[in-house]
Amino acid sequence: MSKPRAYSVKAYSTPGAQSPLATFSISRREPTDNDVQLEILYCGVCHSDLHFARNEWGFTQYPAVPGHEIIGRVTAVGGKVKKFKVGDTVGVGCLVDSCRTCPDCRAGLEQFCPEMVMTYGSTDRHLGTPTLGGYSQGIVVSEEFVLRIPANLSLAATAPLLCAGITTYSPLRRWKVGPGQKVGIVGLGGLGHMGVKFARAFGAHVVLFTTSPGKSADAKRLGAHDVVVSKDEAQMAAHAGSFDFILDTVSAKHDLNAYINLLKRDGNLVLVGAPNEPLPVSAFPLIMRRRSFSGSLIGGLPETQEMLDFCGQHHITSDIEMIRMDQINEAYERMLKSDVKYRFVIDMASLK
Ligand code: NAP
Ligand code: ZN
Ligand code: ZN
Question: Which of 105, 132, 151, 236 is the most exposed place for a label (fewest CB within 10 A)?
Fold first, then answer.
């Protein structure tokens, strides 16, 4: 494969873990035969962007450009592209490439491919340089990693579905959450509020666990039947041993055992939050009732398209607060205070 030429676009990037993000010029490859080039219209702000910008997971290469909840308009397509044409409105999530031949890729689980290329924090297979995310004017992505957006959904409010949406949809589907089940969602942030919406849409009895008592009314509006303030031991004890499934979306260190104790026999606690510190799990709460503790990572391309189509059919989008690109550093600080209702989305026209 010969190396494609590169061109420049503006982006918001950070030169180091302690530095704020600011305008910078970055390189994108010229579209190859299988590539779709987008002008980015909106980009959601995931807590992973913050973990990554500040090197909390330890693998960030600088300069770093976060952003993996991308909605854009197609500006060019390569000669072999079949699914998209110039002018289409499309989405790109956390993945931009993979090997396409391993068992994970063949199963449509590209997120587990050993050669999976993330939208940021991986190596571009064409240029050999670090991949740079969606806080930018444009991006070039292989056709197979571009998603169709249902025409009836608001574009800005659809952006967070590309990560927060699929990351909650996928485990709720895999563990077959549905009618007759009591399901907990831990944390009402970007992921958590989508988890509440999906669990409710799938027909479960939904309980939201929060550290922010002020979010109770919103949680019910978003679909929760019940809200538990997790710092209140009496409220937690009232639910002991009663849940079929709990999805934990918390971004910081917290006590997992408190949630394992709330599961029924054979119940599942699934972690999607990615704090950088280890979270201790005690043996007894697990073994006494044959409970399970698992993790889940975003979702593959077929399931991401399925989730978007489901959202189109059921009119599900994210509750967003639109920001300008130059408000991103302030948005990160608000995210750390759990002050997001319930996803920031950057209006990329503000990146001048
Ligand atoms: P977010 O919008 O900041 O929401 C996180 C929520 O967790 C907060 O709103 C807060 O909810 C709760 N929380 C925060 N600090 C807490 C603490 N110390 N103790 C207890 N609860 C706390 O973040 P997000 O974008 O939803 O992302 C959540 C996590 O998922 C991040 O770690 C992110 O990196 C990870 N993630 C993983 C995947 C995956 O594929 N597995 C994909 C995307 C993101 P309350 O105010 O309601 O308590
Ligand atoms: Zn994300
Ligand atoms: Zn693969």
Answer: 151
Distance 3 CA to ligand 3 centre (A): 21
The end-to-end CA distance of the chain, in Å, is 34
Q: Is the pLDDT of residue 315 over 80?
A: yes
- Assessment of whether the complete model's pTM goes beyond 0.90: yes
* The CATH number of domain 6-163+319-351, selected from 3.30.160.60, 3.40.30.10, 3.40.50.1970, 3.90.180.10: 3.90.180.10
Which residue puts its alpha carbon closest to atom 7 of ligand 1?
A: 250
Q: Are 84 and 74 in contact (CB under 8 A)?
A: yes
User: CA-CA distance, 241 to 277, in Å (whole number)?
Assistant: 27
The model's pLDDT over 37-92, given as tens digits with 9 standing for 90+, comes to 999 999 999 999 999 999 999 999 999 999 999 999 999 999 999 999 999 999 99
Q: Dihedral sign, CA of 146, 331, 55, 210? A: negative
Residue 193 in contact with ligand 1 by CB distance below 6 A: no
Output the CA–CA distances (angstroms, integers) from residue 12 to 106, 138, 195, in the order listed: 35, 12, 29
Asked whether 189 lines ligand 1 (CB < 6 A), one says yes
Average pLDDT over the chain, rounded to whole?
A: 97
Ligand 2 centroid from CA 235, angstroms: 30
| Residue matched to tokens 């302030």 | 330
The set of residues, in sequence order, having a beta carbon less than 8 Å from that of 317 and lying 6+ positions away, is: 153, 154, 157, 158, 160, 161, 311
